[in-house]
Fold this protein.
Amino acid sequence: MKIRLVLLALVMGASQSLADCPLDRIETALASPLDGMTPVEREVSETQSTEGGVWKIYREADGRLHTIIRIDAGESGRNETRLSVVNRQTYGIASTRIDYIRHAFVEEGPFAIVRRTTDYYFYCGGAVYVPGENGAMVDLTAYPKAAAAAQQLMVLNRDVAGFTKGLAR
């Protein structure tokens, strides 16, 4: 009986903390401009294509982590993933796919971006916020898996682990 009560309390506490997840503050952090901030840049060690990738790490004036951007270049497009921090317990990740109108190495004709799609993930206490079944506009099976992959890429990746070590996981 005691075990059941402890488990119930844990589940209720976890769902309550996610219910209080400040999605609006996370969304604001992800949209905040980076003007005036100079990033620390480093190469991505495990690239997703032969064109390589770069990390851009932005810190507040006091040294706290503000945002990390990972750019993975490609011939037909690129991936840009942004981690922005509200506080150590609360952060968001925006994963953007950018598709080009033509292959990057074809020299003929004008060049442009033809499509940009972004998925947003919200984390509180290190756990992804997943809406309840009623009214959810995301695939409740695929979304948490994609969010876990984004967290692995942006929070747990060894390239930036020194910058993200204080974030909840």
Notes: Strands lie at 40-43, 53-59, 65-73, 77-87, 90-100, 113-124, 127-128. The helical segments are 2-19, 23-31, 142-154, 161-164. DSSP finds four helices and seven strands in the chain. The two ends are 30 Å apart (CA to CA).
